[in-house]
Amino acid sequence: METAALFEKFVVPTYGRFPLSLVRGEGCRVWDEAGAEYLDFGAGIAVCSIGHSHPRMVEALTRQAGRLIHTSNLYLIREQALLAERLVACIGHPGKIFFCNSGAEANEALYKLARKFGNETVPPAPTHTVGELVAAEPRRHGIVTFDGSFHGRTLAGIAATGQAKVKKGFEPIVEGFSQAPFNDMPGLVAAVPPGLAAILLEPIQGERGVHPATPDFLRSTRTLCDERGALLLFDEIQCGLGRTGDWAGWRSLGADDVVPDAVSWAKGIAGGFPMGAIWVRDRPIDLKSGGTISLADLLGPGSHGTTFGGTPLACAVATAVLDVIEEENLLQNARDLGAFAKDSLAALGSRWIAEVRGVGLMLGVELAPDFPAPEGRAPSLALVDQLQTAGLLAVPSGTHAIRWLPPLNVTRAEIERAVDILGSVLQKTA
Ligand code: PLP
Fold first, then answer.
1. Structural contact between residues 289 and 120, judged by C-beta atoms closer than 8 angstroms
2. Cα gap 117→298, rounded to integer Å
3. Are the CB atoms for 201 and 235 separated by under 8 Å?
4. Ligand 1, pocket-test mutation among 100, 107, 110, 150, most atoms within 8 A of CB
5. What is the pLDDT of residue 128?
6. Shortest-distance Cα residue to atom 10 of ligand 1
């Protein structure tokens, strides 16, 4: 039976899939079942950070698989400890790491951190915020996220996500989450509920067309969290660990001075091997039960866990990916070629491109509102279809944008080729 027919018969149809089956990859290129070659500017939706089949990754994977794949978190795992040390260095501030397996799960750890923080720490004294008296709240479990955000598909993930379409049919929605307008400080202040435990945001929103936060918004949100005794949490699942040309997505926006309380990662962290993780800041917090501990130790023994979190195999692969990013100078490559791609896209001067947004190799191309598409197909999908036929894989983002998220080791020639393909597809668009 053909792949499409097997899917039709045996796979739960949760995804809207393109009729394309990829069987091989090398660097920034992939091949389908019929042998056709594509430039992969989706990279598994920002996952394959050092490209396909990088020899260093293959070597680390096979070496560790032949040595020790899994032990459980009942025991110490040296590869996990060493990777944790590396990831703390990526953030550049003292803290600790919890390992899991996906982005939704990493965010789940953030929600649990926020709940425990709200339930077990001493609430802030009453303060005056923007002229309004905010009383100290006995129940502190509110988590504010943002319109247009995406935080994963678990029940708490869809409660956190600021898009109605992901929640539809899954009511009742997990309690305690609410959304505020993005990049709008007065709007955020007005939307903060009593009993705020945390504010969670993507420094660069990925799923609705690549929208970076402004550095001022990040700074003011940090100040608001401090005033309200709440945690500032960053979802860097798509924008973190090199994608924007910095280990920290928010730093590449010019907000180096902002220090969050916790950060979630997944996607590119192990270059395509499943892994999620959070960093939690080492900062003293006062417990209601008396005493002070570090926030990084709040999720103590028995409070959270997962069977596959931080296996020797996953950690060996992630370490190899970080090594390659460092040794091949890929943060610089992401900065340089991201800027080159952005300029080249703007230079196309196409009437179908309304705006090019993003940082490093996380780029969004917003299409003109009247970009033509077949009946029932969003313009973003229609363009991705045409690019695919022309040999370029890109990722739709919302109804009117496409994303370019190539591997961090993409070359200048590959960017030029992708710009040519996009330019000629747009030129043919009537
Ligand atoms: N958060 C962000 C910003 C994402 O982009 C994604 C995935 O697209 C997630 C969370 C969920 O990650 P996962 O699909 O690994 O659960």
1. yes
2. 7
3. yes
4. 150
5. 47
6. 151
